[in-house]
Structures are given as C-alpha cells and as structure tokens.
Amino acid sequence: MCNETFEDFHQIVMNKIPLIDVRAPIEYNKGAFKNAINLPLMNNEDRHEVGICYKEKGNEEAVKLGHRLVSGKTKESRIEAWVSYLTLYPESLLYCFRGGQRSQISQQWILDNTGIVIPRLKGGYKSFRNYLIDALRPAAQKSKPIILGGYTGSGKTILLKKLKNSIDLEDIANHRGSSFGKFTSPQPTQINFENNLAYALIQHKSSEYRHMILEDEGRNIGKCFFPKDLAEHFNSGPVIVLEAPLQERIKLTLDEYVLQAQSQFLEIFGHDTGLEKWHLSISKSINKIKKRLGLERYSAVVTALNSAYADQLNTGKHDKHNAWIKILLQGYYDPMYLHQLEKKSNKIAFKGNALEVLQYLNNYL
User: Fold this and answer.
1) Which residues span the membrane (predicted)?
2) Which residues are catalytic?
3) What is the pLDDT of residue 1?
4) pTM value?
C-alpha cells in the first residue's frame, strides 16, 4: 500500500501547490482550498450509500461496497481524470477529509495504473483546515494593522492595490462591501472565505512587513464575516482617511457600479438581457435600503435611475447616471460614513488626497 504523505502546509500556501480533492462534490462545495480541484473518488449518492453501510455494518463492509460502486468503467474514468490533471500539474497533492481511506485508495490506484507516486495530505482536509484557522488568530499576526478609510467612491481600493503590504479584503470576499456590492459571480462560502483569508495572512506574514494596510470594513463583507477577535484586531490600528472631492467620487462610483458592472452583466448574459439584468440588480439594491433612505429620497433615486437607464438605452451614453449616484452619496452614504468616522476620531492619524496618502503609507512597509 502506497503511504506517501505531505504535511508542510506552509509550503502549500507559499508555493500555491495544486491540490486534488477526492471528497464528494457536496463536501467540496461546502468548503475547500485555493488551488484545489474536485476530482472525487465517489459521487454524492455513492458516498451516501457507503455512509449508511458504515453505520449499519461497519468499516469493512462499507469499504467493500465502495469498491463495488466505483469499479469497471467508473473506476477507469476516475483514474483517467486524476492522471490527466497530474500531467498538467505533476506537483499536485491528494486529500480527502481526514487523509484516510479515500485518498489512500486514490493514491494506490494512481500508482498501480501509472507508476506515479502522488503524496496525500497528512490528516487530510481537517488538518490543513485547522492550520488555516490557526492563522486567523490575532496572536498569529506579526504586522500591525493600519486602516484605510474614506467616503464611498474616494478610491480606497485603487490606492490599496498600489501598496505592497496591503490585503484586499473585498477581493477575498468577492464583494464591494456595500449594499450595491454584489458581483455577478457569487461570494465564496464562509469556509472558503476564511481559508482564502488565511492564505493571504500567511503570505503577508512571510514577507515580514511591519504593517498591514486594510480597507475600513465592518465585521461583514456581504454574507462573509470575520472571526470576532480577528475583526477587533484589524480595527485596532490607526485610521488613515483618503479624501476626494465629490465630483471625483461620483466619477469613480460611475466607473465601478455602472460601467464595469454593466460590462460584467453583458459578458455573462449577452447584449439582449445584460443591461436589463444590471438595471434589475441595481433596483433591488436600492429597494433593500428603502427604509433607511426615506420615501422622498428613495423616490428621487429610483426616478433618476430609471431616467438614466432609459436615456442610456436611447443614446448609449452614461452621463445621466451621475444624478442618482450623487443623491446616494450625499443623502445616504456620506452621513452614514461620517457617523462611523466620528466614532473613530481619536484614531485618525492622517488625512489627505490619494497622492498624499500613498506617500504617507509607503513609509509603513
């Protein structure tokens, strides 16, 4: 029996080693790791049957059933999928839930049919997951957090990407961090969010930066949330406020929430329905904050949005979208962020425009 194992989880993170997850799709979809592909030994139905057999008749009978279910052409197709992936990524590693029978069987079948020895993760998914959870502890962080704040549309994410020692939390969560923050692609599961965040923290730590620059976030980014103690650690740092005039903020918001967003919808849904789906998505987002906007302001935003959308369909121009963006910034986002900023007034260390803030933060690598 092949028993080659690998347990240097730090190396997996730092070298972005490809992983083959041989668990059933239902397990993989709940949570997996970066650079992992799901090439299961058993499908969901087979796993369910084997699980019942294990409970009723024990491990030996469950293993026999598993071999009967995954045999013949099914077994051949499993081996073919693993070998095809290994041809592209020969440095790959195998894992199942605890690094036990499923990954051992997969490992042995590959060896028997190809002569290839592929190591499996020692302890499997569970051990690697525990390693990543440990990386999320505040005590595991060596660099000091610095929070980049600023009103909506001030260009925080743009500036963040110019800093070597930053971590883009919104990118990890695949969400812009506001009521209008959804992308066309879904957010990761909570488990995947935590795993991906752990990857980023481990890689950041290995660079030995003295500081970690993070955008000012609440505990949640869309449906993803930070562990409470980690969120408190992130928010313990000084606040740097990025300032930008209103017209510049409107322009940046137009680019992100209209131009870029529409481009994504068009790419996915095509020209016939892409713009319509974008308009529906924005309308739903506005409706979600109806109570907080108030009836009068809500009506004004909806009217301005519908007018701008109709004009765009007729002329192909986007200029009129500035109107509803301005109402939202001045009437909703600015008062809300001002209130949040006032609560952090004693933590504000610096204020300035994009160039000034960039120069300031470049001193904190």
Assistant:
1) none
2) 96
3) 65
4) 0.92
